[in-house]
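*** Fold description ***
***
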Amino acid sequence: MEIRALKKTDSKEYLALMLRLDEESEFMMYEPGERKTTAEQMECKIESLDSSEGIILGAFDSGNLVGFVSLGRGFANRIKHIGYIVIGIVLEASGKGLGTMLLNSIERWASEHSIKKLELSVMVHNEKAHNLYLKSGFVDEGVKRKSIHINGKFYDEYYMGKVIP
């Protein structure tokens, strides 16, 4: 397994991964068919990330992109020390320690770039991901009530954080 920063040449594969995750998981933000991003827009997104603002790390298995973790840094001076992360892994690659590897990699990157806290949210009923985050040192900091609407039902999310020493 190789974990590395995505390059603009990875944009088509990254878009394909995101579209696949939209189909495979109710735990991602977009519903199947809702994402309208083009490969060119994805290329611009990857290219526009400079190391001071954030990063997208990809997990490659035998050269195929099977997961990612992205970090966006706080936009204002008072919150530039915070990185908000999103993670996604295709079903066939889950349960093999990849989530832990991605979280460790993004924490290393964050630490090297003066980020002192990582934040994320996870749907309360996504027990597998919630347990991964707890195991990785994140703590529940609150509950966002009726935060997500899926198939006519509202779901709560845990708001989680991890202070980086």
